[in-house]
Amino acid sequence: MERAIDNQIEDLKKMILLMGGHVEKSLAQATAALLSRDLAMFDSVHAIEQLINEDHIKVDNACMNILAKQGPVAKDLRLIISVLKINNDLERMGDQAVNISYTGKDYLGRAPIQAQLNDIQKMSEIAGRMVKGSLDSFVRGDVDQARKILLMDDEIDGLKNKVFKEATVHIKAQPQDVEAGLDLILIARNLERLGDHATNIAEDVIFAVTGKDIRHGGKFG
Amino acid sequence: MERAIDNQIEDLKKMILLMGGHVEKSLAQATAALLSRDLAMFDSVHAIEQLINEDHIKVDNACMNILAKQGPVAKDLRLIISVLKINNDLERMGDQAVNISYTGKDYLGRAPIQAQLNDIQKMSEIAGRMVKGSLDSFVRGDVDQARKILLMDDEIDGLKNKVFKEATVHIKAQPQDVEAGLDLILIARNLERLGDHATNIAEDVIFAVTGKDIRHGGKFG
Q: Which domains are present in chain B?
């Protein structure tokens, strides 16, 4: 028998995918603006942030509504709780893209240093794949795919460490570039955080599907 | 008539206060270790993180249990949803304290630069007051107090900008200090994030009490 909650959960999944699309786009635009030195493109990131903020409130309200009207239990309840958490992570990813666009604007106003941009591009691509993959694993309830996201986070962390190290060496040799170097370090940090949020989502998917809490090493679940 | 859910909500509040106490302690220890140059004290931050992680899982489970068994609606439902969010913010505050302890350990291994430590101490004190104040406003359902927390966040942001600026000037003049300067910048950033999480909590309190969503400028609530 078809239950009303099944349709509502399908609608929730669609809302989350739409929101995830906005997050992917804002990340891609922020990085493209940085790499193509296109100041105006940063403004589109702020326009997308407005959409993400609207999505954020809508998803929260939809979850509250299902909880109040359907009183879900077991797997349904875990799914709604996971959506509440995924919603928060997506919203904070949008904030990180905005942070990148602010710092990117500063960076474009300075004498360019290029050495770290290649790794930043790679980090952004991996982060984008993590957003897409984590939400895909959520919609399909695919635990194996969610586990792969956790591994991708190590790649991002490695690249962040590389950017930190190389930018520090650069600043020491050419201290007039300290602001530009610091900008790239902060952008690498933002991208690392984006990866962390995608990791949170993957962990939420594993919890929603299996009921197993793998956070904090799975020690307390 | 006394309802079962009232006792469960009281228990939840106690759990959140206990967890908040752990967060305050880990922040205070991380900062004290940095200022007193006490490497061993950083280890206590990691010990407290274990407690925070345990608290995190316990609170989530308690909320799930109330949602499944009591099917709360209206104000009760808003309160449980708020606790789920506050729980996440507190856990991430614990992560920030751990980040401070990692960077602080690096910092203590370098030739010290002292200029920014005074502002970092101030930031830590304000962040600590924000954690305590936001949770106090939550337990008492005090919207006025929650609004005051939002203002304190501006103080932290101002101090972070000051540390960023002064450390950058210092690095430019004395590039051999780039690593130490960068450490202090990252620690200031961690403290700023701690303030952001306390701000999130204050916004959740306002939502739980009034039903008004003031996030994102209150435009979509």
A: 4-218 (1.20.58.220)
State mean pLDDT over B128-147. Answer: 97
What contacts B74, CB < 8 A, 6 or more positions away? A68
- Is residue A183 within 8 Å of A99, Cβ to Cβ? no
pLDDT at A216: 80
Q: Reduce the DSSP state of residue A31 to 3 states and report it.
A: helix
Q: What is the DSSP letter of B218?
A: G
Q: Tell me the pLDDT tens digit for each residue of A79-112.
A: 999 999 999 999 999 999 999 999 999 999 999 8
Binary contact (B172, A175; C-beta < 8 A): yes
A130 pLDDT exceeds 80? yes
Angle, alpha carbons B134-B136-B140 (nearest 5°): 120
Which chain B residues are Cβ-neighbours of A73 within 8 angstroms?
68
Please give, rounded to a whole number of angstroms, the shortest distance from the CA of B57 to a CA of chain A: 7
Shortest CA gap B178–chain A (Å): 6
Task: Write b or e for each residue in A189-200: b if 16 or more Cβ atoms lie within 10 A of its Cβ, otherwise e.
Answer: bbbbbbbbbbbb
Would you call B78 and A84 a contact, using CB atoms and an 8 Å cutoff?
no
What is the torsional sign of CA A7, A11, A16, A18? positive
Instruction: Kindly indicate the confidence band of residue A221, based on its pLDDT and cuts at 50, 70 and 90.
Output: very low
Picking from B58, B164, B216, the nearest residue to A57 by CB comes out as B216
**Chain A residues touching residue B186 (CB < 8 angstroms):** 189
Count CB pairs under 8 A between chains A and B: 95
